[in-house]
Specification:
By secondary structure, this protein is mainly α. Helices cover 58% and strands 0% of the residues.
Length: 434
């Protein structure tokens, strides 16, 4: 009995001990906040340098990792303004635009500080070699973008936060704040239609309307911290980052030789740069969309090749559309056409590969893929014909069966009419009838 009571007491004490530990843990912050007279003082002020700034910092990704003094210096442990903001305490205040990159790099170029967050530390070096960095740091042009131009100052959000100005879907508008402002860009003699063009492009529609994160934004082609316009010799490589097979085939064709010697043609010669529209099989020689006619006249061998590419690819596409409709109709016969659907998938793959391979300008290679598609079409059409034939045969058999049953019913009916009424037959007559 005493043992049971002791056990009960021990359990009760253990429960109370853990309850006390839990109370202590949840009653105090996991990490005591150091005194921050900057936030205390500015938090009680109105205007852009007051509570607005403090609230922005508290909502930023820096709140948990960087206090005011980490960027601005000073002595945040003192309530005396003169002491807190003294130069002897390292107070810097708001940096000048030219100072901002080095200002941010104190932490962001430090591998030790950035390691816990898995953030690369090369941004500052990249920026110094970018168009923006060279103009700011070498030429003193303070109009160009620096860190805060894109990331913000006190309200910096994580790049993965959809509200961040450098979140993938927000990047075009962030770049466009400067690059679509005609007055702001006038001195640089740079077009300001890039943002409007991008929003109409296949990339812009995919990213901004369909939220497809796999398509490029400004930063994917131009770079982020090392932003530089692709040079003439770099355009193919930039586009080839995503369109690797197209680049591979382009490099095997005659256009590559011309490109290396003259700089033309390159990707944007046919597809444009910011306003890249969805490609069409009629891009070869059809009217205003005929990109081949930009360089080749209609009486040249090159024009004939382009015409062959266009007509044959369009013909295969037409066959593909026709056979899709054929399968749809054949499915109504209730035949299993899963294999033929797979063959149509293979045919589409061959057609897409032909469109990619045409960048090599090799008719033999293109036709090889088109021929693969045609063979799949033959198999599909044969299977569909067989499905229709079997369906027709079933209909004929059913029709014959119905006709036979109707005739049998008529014969039975006529036979029944020739017999006397059942109730007039006596037992002997019934036996005779049997």
């Amino acid at each position: 009995m005493i043992k049971i009571e002791r056990k009960f007491v021990v359990k009760k004490l253990a429960f109370l001990f853990f309850l006390l530990i839990g109370f202590l843990l949840f009653s105090f912050p996991a990490q005591a906040q150091e005194k921050n007279s900057c936030a205390d003082c500015h938090g009680g002020m109105e205007g852009d340098k007051g509570k607005k700034v403090v609230d922005a910092w508290k909502g930023s990704t820096h709140f948990q990792h960087a206090a005011c003094a980490d960027c601005h210096g000073g002595n945040p442990s003192s309530d005396d303004m003169g002491t807190a903001m003294s130069k002897s305490a390292g107070f810097k205040g708001a940096p000048e635009p030219r100072e901002i990159p080095a200002f941010c790099a104190k932490c962001h170029a430090d591998p030790v500080r950035m390691r816990p967050f898995n953030i690369p530390t090369s941004q500052y070096d990249q920026y110094k070699n970018s168009v923006h960095g060279k103009r700011l740091l070498t030429m003193g042009d303070t109009k160009v973008a620096n860190c805060v131009s894109c990331h913000g100052s006190h309200n910096i959000l994580n790049v993965k936060d959809p509200n961040s100005p450098v979140y993938k879907t927000n990047i075009p508008d962030t770049c466009g704040r400067c690059h679509s402002d005609k007055q702001y860009m006038a001195q640089y003699k740079i077009n300001t239609n890039q943002l409007a063009d991008y929003k109409e492009s296949v990339h812009g529609i995919k990213l901004l309307k369909e939220l497809d994160m796999g398509v490029p934004s400004c930063a994917d082609c131009h770079g982020t911290h090392g932003a530089t316009p692709p040079g003439v010799k770099e355009v193919v490589d930039v586009c080839g980052t995503c369109h690797a097979k197209v680049e591979e085939n382009f490099n095997q064709g005659k256009h590559r030789e011309a490109y290396l010697s003259t700089g033309e043609p390159k990707c944007i010669t046919c597809h444009n740069n910011h306003k890249i529209l969805s490609p069409s099989d009629r891009m070869f020689i059809s009217g205003e969309k005929g990109v081949c006619l930009k360089c080749h006249t209609d009486n040249t061998p090159e024009y004939s090749t382009a015409k062959k590419f266009q007509s044959e690819i369009l013909a295969v596409q037409s066959s593909y559309d026709k056979d899709l409709a054929l399968i749809s109709a054949a499915e109504k016969t209730h035949m299993d056409l899963s294999e033929q659907k797979a063959q149509m998938g293979n045919a589409l793959t061959s057609l897409i590969e032909a469109r990619v391979i045409q960048h090599s300008l090799s008719w033999e290679k293109v036709n090889e893929k088109l021929e693969e598609a045609r063979k799949y079409f033959e198999k599909v059409e044969s299977a569909c014909k067989n499905a229709f034939d079997q369906s027709n045969n079933r209909k004929i058999i059913i029709l014959i069966t119905v006709v036979f049953c109707v005739l049998a019913a008529i014969i039975v009916y006529i036979k029944r009419k020739t017999l006397p009424p059942w109730e007039t037959l006596n037992e002997e007559e019934i036996g005779e009838q049997k």
